[in-house]
Amino acid sequence: MQSSSQKDFGSSHESDEEAAFMEKIQAEVKIEPDNWMPAGYRKSLIRQISQHAHSEIVGMLPEGNWVTRAPTFKRKLQLMAKIQDEAGHGLYLYCAAETLGADRDQEIARLHAGQAKYSSIFNYPTPSWADVGTIGWLVDGAAIVNQVVLQRTSYGPYARAMVRICKEESFHQRQGYELLLVMMKQGNEAQKAMVQDSINRFWWPVLMMFGPSDAQSPNSAQSMTWKIKRNSNDELRQRFIDQTIPQLEFLGCTAPDPDLKWNAERGHYDFGEIQWDEFYHVLEGNGPCNQERLDTRRQAFEEGSWVRQAAAAHARKEQEKNREAAHV
Ligand code: FAQ
């Protein structure tokens, strides 16, 4: 049994480490994988980074739906490049989670078992070609607003992953907006209507991407103290709306929100009530495409099993060759 003096030593030692950790956080010094960190910090980062990684991977599916039906060769190449980028983002993020001790296979198993969260937005269908543009413009646009600030997150590997991811997301956003501009400025009436319909369907779900309102966000306070998050969900949602409305107007489209209007006093757009019931319904697995997305992921994982086995066999052979070469 521990004596009380041992116990005291243990806890003061821990609180010294905790104080040093908080000093670093306050001084904007990045926390690196081999640094001491509170267990809760590690856990919260694994939670957020793995959910983020899953979002990138599941996020390939709504657009993947259009690869074989893209209207021109150029659009098809752009779409394939974008989807491959999302796969890359997922991989950097799984690697970042691994630096914290997460087990990638376990995280992926949790996703496939329906136990892990990923962004609610990817549970909505993409029935029209305009949805490819809307995803690029609005979904990647929202992702950028959220992720640009994460470049300053306190955990080094996550912050650095965000730098490259943000550069690629900017390209995604522009390709989406340009696609919609072509439809709106050069398209016929049916194509213009397709764009407006797509914006009508995606507008509110995109606003939900930023997470519940601050008062309902259980993780925010602690994540802000640890500087995992640098801005609150509501701040980023407002920033996104303020940035997006001029782009929406330039397109010649409208948002499906009668309460949306510029508030000169606040210096921001006011907007209508978000239907949080819908958000929680989707999080519980009951959105329009939750089942389809998970079924597709599981099937892709099973069908790709031979690739993983072949890569592992190749790695083993290479290791053996290197060992033999070392003994010669
Ligand atoms: N969907 O306490 P908070 C992309 C969960 S990447 C589903 O506020 P937190 C690229 C939340 O996890 C898009 N779940 O949570 C792309 C928590 O659950 P838990 C993804 C959500 O972590 C584009 C609970 O609700 N981006 O789009 C959502 O402080 C195009 C309570 O919420 C990131 O992941 C949601 N929308 O703040 C790919 C960015 N919102 O764990 C393909 C990094 C909240 O307690 C095509 N993540 N929840 O059970 C973050 O910044 C934060 O995690 C937030 C949520 C802001 C998403």
Layout of SSEs?
Layout: H1 4-26, H2 39-58, H3 60-64, H4 73-98, H5 104-112, H6 130-150, H7 156-186, H8 189-208, H9 220-225, H10 233-251, E1 261-263, E2 268-270, H11 276-286, H12 290-303, H13 305-327
Antiparallel strand pairs: 1-2
Polypeptide structure, described:
With 328 residues, the protein is mainly α. It has 13 helices and 2 strands; from the N terminus they run ααααααααααββααα. The protein is 70% helix and 2% strand. Strand 1 and strand 2 form a beta hairpin. 33% of the residues are buried. Mean pLDDT is 95; it is low at 1-10. The structure holds Phenylacetyl coenzyme A. Phenylacetyl coenzyme A binds at residues 47-48, 51-52, 55-56, 59, 86, 117, 119-120, 135, 139-140, 143, 146, 208-212, 217-220, 223, 229, 233, 283.
The protein's oligomeric status is single chain
Q: Please give the number of β-strands.
A: 2
- Main beta-sheet strand count, sense and barrel state: 2 strands, antiparallel
Strand pairing plus helix content: what structural class?
mainly alpha
Radius of gyration: 23 Å
Provide the spatial order of strands within the biggest beta sheet.
1-2
Strand content: under 5%
Task: Give every kind of bound small molecule, once each.
Answer: Phenylacetyl coenzyme A
**Proportion in helices:** 55-70%
